[in-house]
C-alpha cells in the first residue's frame, strides 16, 4: 500500500514540475512515507526524521519536509508534530494532496525539462501518470481499491491509522489500471486491507469479482493479482472468477495468524481453524495448481507452547507457498496492547519465528522441487546480479541468464535448480 501511495505522490509532484533525485543534498522536498505495523518500523522513521531535521536546521533551511502514512494517521498526530517541528506538512495514508497543495502555493519547484504535459495528454483526467524514471522500466504496479479497514483485530493498528473501510469507485480504478497498461505496466495488484470486501460500502452491485472482470478486459495487461484476502469474505463467486479468467493469477494471500482457536478468539479474527482449513480446501478445489500464502503472528499475548504447536501443525498440514511470519509487537491504542500482557519473552518469540521459518524452508523445498525440469511462465521484472529476475503466476521468484533484453516480457523458463526461496532455470522455447 505504501509503494502505491508513494507512486501517486511522485506522480502528483512530477505533474507540478518536480523531478526525482537520489541525493537528499540536492532535494527541495523530502518526504518519508511511514509504516507503524511494528515498533522497529516506527523507530526507523524517528531516526530519519532526526537526521533530516538536523540537515534542515544546519544546511538546508529551505528544504520542505513531509511526513506521510501511518505515523500521521487519518486524524493527524500532534505528538509527532510537537516532537519534530521541522516537518512542514503531514500527509495521511493514501492522500498526497496536502503536500501537492503546499508545493503549488509555494511554487517551490521549478518547471522541469521532462515532457510531463505531452505524456499527460495521452491520458484522460484522473488516470495515473507514471513518474518519468519509471516509464518503460516499471512492469508491475499496485492499485489500491479499498482504503482503511473496519475490522477490529485486537493486535492491529491499521484501522486507527488508515481509517474506516472506503472503496474507490469502480470506474476510477479501471481508468487508473488502463492508464498504467498504456504506459507499459503488465501486471497489476489490486490492494486492500480486506480486498475481498471491495464494494461492500458502495451503492449498487460493485464487488471484487466484478472489478476483476472489468480490469481483465484491459488491453495490454497480462496479469492481475489482488491482496490481502480475509477468510470470511473469500467466497465461491470470487474463487470461480479467479479460476476462470486467464489473466488473474491463481495465487491467494489469506492470513491465518494462528493455528489455535483460543488465540484466534483473543485476536478477534472472526473464524476458527476448522473454518480456515475448509477455505483452503475450497481454494485448492477451484485452483488445484494455484499457490496460497498466509500471515502468522508468533508470541501473541498468552500464546502457550502447545498453542504455538497448533500453528506448526497447520503449516505442515496445508503446505503454504509463502508464510509471512511476524513476532507480536504491541501497538499503542490497540485492544491487545491495552488489555493483554505482552507475556511471551522476546527469546521465545524469536525461537518460534525460527521454528516456523525452518518448517517453511522444508515445505517449500519440497513444493519447488516438483517444478524441476518443468516449464513455468515468468514475467521478467528486471536484471539483478547478472541474471534476469521475474515471477511465476503463482508468485514464485525465478532467475535465468541470457544476453538478450527480456524486461517486461512473459517468457517460458525451464527450472533446473529449486531452493525454498527462489528457483533458477534457462529460457525455453515458447509452448
Ligand atoms: S483485517 Fe487486517 S487490517 Fe483489518 S484489523 Fe484485522 S489485521 Fe488489521
Polypeptide structure, described:
Strand 14 and strand 15 form a beta hairpin. The longest helix has 24 residues, at 346-369. The strands form four sheets. Strands 11-12-13-15-14 form a five-stranded mixed β-barrel. Helix 8 runs parallel beside helix 9 and helix 12 (305-318) runs parallel beside helix 14. It is globular, with a radius of gyration of 23 Å. Among the domains are: 2-117, Rossmann fold (3-Layer(aba) Sandwich), CATH 3.40.50; 250-369, 2-Layer Sandwich (Transcription Regulator spoIIAA); 375-428, OB fold (Dihydrolipoamide Acetyltransferase, E2P), CATH 2.40.50.140. It is of the alpha/beta class. It has 14 helices and 15 strands. The structure holds iron/sulfur cluster (SF4).
What would a concise description of this structure say?
The chain is an alpha/beta fold and 431 residues long.
Write the layout of secondary structure elements.
Layout: H1 2-15, E1 29-34, H2 39-58, E2 64-69, H3 78-83, E3 89-91, H4 97-106, H5 116-121, E4 140-147, H6 158-162, E5 166-167, H7 170-182, E6 187-192, H8 208-216, E7 223-227, H9 236-244, E8 251-253, H10 261-267, H11 273-286, E9 291-298, H12 305-318, E10 322-327, H13 335-339, H14 346-369, E11 375-384, E12 387-392, E13 397-400, E14 410-418, E15 423-428
Parallel strand pairs: 1-2, 2-3, 4-6, 6-7, 8-9, 9-10, 13-15
Antiparallel strand pairs: 4-5, 11-12, 11-14, 12-13, 14-15
Helix pairs in contact: 8-9, 12-14
The structure holds iron/sulfur cluster.
The site of iron/sulfur cluster has 9 residues, from α6.
Amino acid at each position: 500500500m505504501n509503494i502505491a501511495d508513494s507512486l501517486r505522490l511522485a506522480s502528483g509532484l512530477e505533474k507540478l514540475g518536480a523531478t526525482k533525485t537520489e541525493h537528499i543534498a540536492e532535494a527541495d522536498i523530502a518526504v518519508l512515507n511511514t509504516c507503524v505495523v511494528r515498533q522497529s518500523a516506527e523507530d526507523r522513521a524517528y531516526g530519519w526524521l532526526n537526521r533530516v531535521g538536523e540537515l534542515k536546521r544546519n544546511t538546508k533551511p529551505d528544504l520542505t519536509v513531509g511526513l506521510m502514512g501511518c505515523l500521521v494517521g487519518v486524524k493527524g498526530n500532534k505528538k509527532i508534530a510537537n516532537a519534530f517541528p521541522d516537518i512542514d506538512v503531514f500527509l495521511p495514508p493514501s492522500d498526497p494532496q496536502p503536500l501537492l497543495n503546499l508545493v503549488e502555493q509555494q511554487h517551490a519547484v521549478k518547471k522541469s525539462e521532462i515532457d510531463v504535459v505531452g505524456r499527460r495528454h495521452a491520458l484522460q483526467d484522473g488516470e495515473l501518470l507514471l513518474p518519468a524514471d519509471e516509464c518503460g522500466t516499471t512492469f508491475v504496479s499496485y492499485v489500491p481499491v479499498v482504503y482503511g479497514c473496519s475490522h477490529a483485530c485486537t493486535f492491529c493498528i491499521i484501522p486507527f491509522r488508515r481509517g474506516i473501510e472506503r472503496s474507490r469507485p469502480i470506474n476510477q480504478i479501471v481508468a487508473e489500471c488502463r492508464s498504467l497498461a498504456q504506459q507499459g505496466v503488465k501486471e497489476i495488484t489490486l490492494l486492500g486491507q480486506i480486498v475481498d470486501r471491495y464494494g461492500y460500502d458502495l451503492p449498487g452491485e460493485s464487488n471484487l469479482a466484478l472489478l476483476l472482470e472489468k480490469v481483465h478486459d484491459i488491453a495490454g495487461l497480462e496479469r492481475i493479482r489482488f491482496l490481502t484476502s480475509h477468510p470470511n469474505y473469500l467466497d465461491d463467486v470470487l474463487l470461480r472468477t479467479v479460476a476462470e479468467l486467464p489473466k488473474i493469477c491463481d495465487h491467494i494471500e489469506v492470513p491465518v495468524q494462528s493455528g489455535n482457536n483460543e488465540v484466534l478468539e483473543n485476536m478477534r479474527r472472526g473464524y476458527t481453524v476448522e473454518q480456515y482449513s475448509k477455505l483452503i480446501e475450497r481454494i485448492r478445489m477451484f485452483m488445484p495448481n494455484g499457490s496460497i500464502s498466509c500471515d502468522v503472528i508468533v508470541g501473541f499475548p498468552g500464546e502457550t507452547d502447545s498453542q504455538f504447536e497448533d500453528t506448526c501443525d497447520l503449516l505442515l498440514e496445508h503446505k503454504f507457498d509463502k508464510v509471512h511470519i511476524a513476532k507480536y509487537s504491541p501497538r499503542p491504542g490497540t485492544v491487545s496492547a491495552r488489555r493483554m500482557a505482552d507475556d511471551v519473552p522476546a527469546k521465545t518469540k524469536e525461537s518460534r519465528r525460527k521454528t516456523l521459518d525452518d518448517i517453511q524452508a522444508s515445505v517449500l523445498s519440497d513444493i519447488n522441487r516438483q517444478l524441476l525440469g518443468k516449464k513455468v511462465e515468468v514475467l521478467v521484472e528486471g536484471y539483478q546480479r547478472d541474471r534476469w529476475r521475474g515471477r511465476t503466476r503463482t508468485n514464485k521468484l525465478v532467475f535465468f541468464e541470457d544476453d538478450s533484453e527480456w524486461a517486461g516480457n512473459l517468457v517460458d523458463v525451464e527450472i533446473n535448480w529449486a531452493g525454498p526461496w527462489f528457483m533458477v532455470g534457462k529460457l525455453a522455447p515458447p509452448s
